[in-house]
Amino acid sequence: xxxxxxxxxxxxxxxxxxxxxxxxxxxxxxxxxxxxxxxxxxxxxxxxxxxxxxxxxxxxxxxxxxxxxxxxxxxxxxxxxxxxxxxxxxxxxxxxxxxxxxxxxxxxxxxxxxxxxxxxxxxxxxxxxxxxxxxxxxxxxxxx
Length: 144
Known about the structure:
Blueprint: H1 6-11, E1 17-22, E2 27-32, H2 36-46, H3 58-66, E3 67-68, H4 81-84, H5 89-102, H6 108-116
Antiparallel strand pairs: 1-2, 2-3
Helix pairs in contact: 3-5
C-alpha cells in the first residue's frame, strides 16, 4: 500500500456513521465517530486537572457530539447538551454506550483501573500491561 501524503490524509473521508433505533423517540438516529479535536475537548471537559471530574450531564454532552445526519454532519451544538440531558436517561445512556463503543473509548471501569495503575513503579513502568489487540484500540465498553 502506498504511503499517504498530507493532502491525501486531510482529504480522507474517515467518519463512520451508525444507525441506532430509538423507539422511544419514534424512529432511528445516527451517531458518528467524533473528530480527535472533539474527543480531546470532551475529555478535557470531564477532567481538566487530571484529578477532579466534572460529571454534570456528561452523557448528554457526549451524545450531543455523537448525533449526526446520515452523512456524519453534527445535528447539535455543544450548547444543546442541557436540553438533551432532559430526555429519557434510558435513551441517553444507550446512545452514550453505543458512541463510546463506536469511538473506542474506555469504559468507566477501565479508566478507574488505568488511574490505579498509572503511578510509576521502581523500574519506571506504569504497572499496566500493553494492549494485546493488534490495532491498539481502546477496549470496548462491557455490555450490561
